[in-house]
Design goal:
Two copies of one chain form a homodimer. Chain A is an alpha/beta fold and 288 residues long. Chain A contains eleven helices and eight strands. In chain A, strands 3-2-1-4-5-6-7-8 form an eight-stranded mixed β-sheet, with helices on both faces. The first copy, chain A, is globular and about 70 Å long. The two termini of chain A are 32 Å apart. Chains A and B meet through helix 7, helix 8, helix 9, helix 10 and helix 11 of A and helix 7, helix 8, helix 9, helix 10 and helix 11 of B.
Chain lengths: 288, 288
């Protein structure tokens, strides 16, 4: 028996599409309705969503999607979350719980709570891919991944419980974290790696040309994988999370400057100490 | 029929061990002899080399390994290549060709040619792993990888041909490149990615503690994979290739500083332009 009657997913890209596929497979909701802003200009992507089983019902508008929905998931880029919430808020059922999947949380949670306090739960599944769009979606994307929730003093207990059950239904591990702490952690563990990947791709292209580029091996491949991510999406994330991103970036730049000085001085002992410490630090992380 | 009678591999870690396994499989040489400096303190690793089929003959000394060898491969860290060459040079057969597999080339080639001009060919297979040692070796490590050779005006044509045939025998694509150009390209495509990976691991560990570290996902995993590499090996590489590494690092730091300024100013247009250019740059590389 389904936990809820109807879930509405607004935005059916990599995350929203994968969520729809996973929720349909889980039987968590009797109906998975969805809508995507891109369907108007690219009607084929609507057909792909239905074919791939991301939604039962491809709604004509976000308002139509949220009608009757117990749970509404805003799966759009971080700068589109609040405008979309503003658009659908008047059409939400009085019992509807709303969550999002954005990579930044403090501003979104604050602004969403100013609109629908108690019923909004900020969320961020720690899973993804450098690819985007419904074509890249996969029902198992969230298997084993942490799904951060950002409850505050305003958050209703039932609302939080529903979002946690949804996360668990798709194989993720729900994990509460205050929005500000989330943003600091995401800056260091996700946003900084993206910045470095983009910077490495740019630097390598400037310094290596022509057929010499085919000499790139594994360290370049992995170091730049996420530079294949959508630049528009990442512009929004970096600007939205500017302070934590700059703090992480500054700390990285300090480290790099100290290393550079040691290399310039041919100070093997210092270079070795810096690399050995970083090597040990890496061993303290478990990664998927 | 084997191309040569005897190859001697001095240093049986990840690269030397994989080369031995691949050469034995290929039948390129009738005998694969080897020696590793670590065998004295860790005799078990000698047994592993024999068990894993990295060598036919585990020699008691580098001098014994090179006796009768047509081809000698110095597969030791970059700062150990010339000292090892000095040790074995008096024992080389007059017809022996010597090559190395180090990640830096200009200094090594210059110093080796000062000793055995004409018979030395600098080499660098563009394949590897964050793991090290014979335990991580694999016969297919070089399949499809470029194998850079660094011929100079001094290099004998037969010597170059022999090293190229060895590379081809293990599935790699031999590719000549002047030593200085190699070092610039390796700095941008391999050494810089390693610097960024070590720095990212250090920064993340400083900013994220305790169980929050389990939130690390794919971008952190891939961005720090090579921070699991051997710090001693990478100390030697970065110090040996100091000038090109600093040039690449400086160019990266300039990019990061420009991005930081745009983020601080909430200048979405500039952030987007920087990320979009980097995204396009990444698409210009083919990686394994």
């Amino acid at each position: 028996v389904a936990a809820i009657q109807r879930v509405a997913i607004l935005g059916l890209g990599l995350i929203g599409g994968s969520l729809g596929m996973a929720l349909k497979r889980s039987g968590f909701a009797s109906e998975v309705a969805g809508w995507d802003a891109g369907w108007e200009t690219r009607p084929a992507s609507r057909a792909v969503c239905l074919e791939r089983g991301a939604v039962d019902e491809a709604a004509d508008s976000p308002e139509a999607a949220v009608a009757g929905a117990d749970l509404v998931v805003l799966a759009v880029p971080v700068d589109a979350v609040i405008p979309l919430l503003d658009r659908v808020a008047p059409h939400l059922e009085p019992y509807a719980v709303v969550t999002d999947v954005g990579s930044t949380k403090e501003r979104i949670v604050r602004e969403a709570e100013a609109r629908i306090a108690g019923r909004f739960v900020g969320g961020h599944p720690m899973a993804g891919s450098e690819r985007s769009g419904i074509e890249a979606a996969a029902a198992d994307l969230f298997e084993g991944a942490p799904w951060i929730t950002c409850p505050t003093n305003e958050t209703g207990r039932k609302a939080l419980g529903l979002v946690e059950r949804m996360a668990a239904a798709v194989g993720a591990a729900p994990r509460p974290c205050p929005p500000g702490l989330h943003d600091d952690v995401a800056a260091a563990l996700s946003h900084l790696p993206h910045v470095l990947a983009f910077g490495l791709a740019d630097t390598a292209a400037a310094r290596v040309s022509g057929t010499l580029r085919t000499l790139a091996a594994g360290s370049f491949r992995d170091g730049t994988r996420v530079a294949q991510s959508d630049p528009a999406l990442w512009t929004s994330i970096l600007v939205d999370n500017a302070e934590p991103v700059m703090e992480s970036l500054d700390q990285f730049l300090s480290w790099a400057t100290v290393l550079r000085r040691a290399i310039a001085a041919a100070d093997r002992e210092s270079v070795h100490r810096l690399l050995a410490q970083a090597h040990e630090s890496r061993a303290e992380f478990e990664t998927p």
